[in-house]
Amino acid sequence: MRVTGGDLAGRKIVVPRRADVRPTADRVRESVFARLGDLEGQAVLDLFAGSGALGIEALSRGAGTALFVDRAETCTACIRANLEALDQDDRSQVWKSPARAALARMARERRQFDLVLLDPPYASGEARGALEALAAAQLVAETGMVVLECDHRHDPGPVAGLRRSDERRYGDTLIARYEPEASSV
Question: What distance in Å separates the CA atoms of residue 173 and residue 24, rounded to the nearest whole number?
Fold first, then answer.
């Protein structure tokens, strides 16, 4: 797998050898990032990070910092190796943590992100809970956005505090974009 755009375009990303890691297809990543616009200097959260491909793509395209969160040691070790190989480890943090625990920690630390990339395991049902936690803790900056990748059969639907502003289907994959509702920020 390779970075599709930005300063690191064409550089290789290693993917963990785990049955539950499903990297976002190159064409889907290209499409997602083409629709995001300028990421210059943005703070990015890559939740359920897997290989870190989405967050690395954001860094390649100008994001200032990225926080990668995954619960599996094999994934966080892979992300660290990718970041080091791509010389991006100075702009990144990697947390080995379940998503809910990491979101609670971020809320205590009063963090905010300009871009949140969510790619939970497809059949896990974790998308809705993560979206609700992001909104409740106001972890998404007022002008920020959340990009969710999930199986279209597990669409989380409406989420209090977030407004779905766009959605696209790529086969079984749903990419939904959310923005904070004005009243929740």
Answer: 9
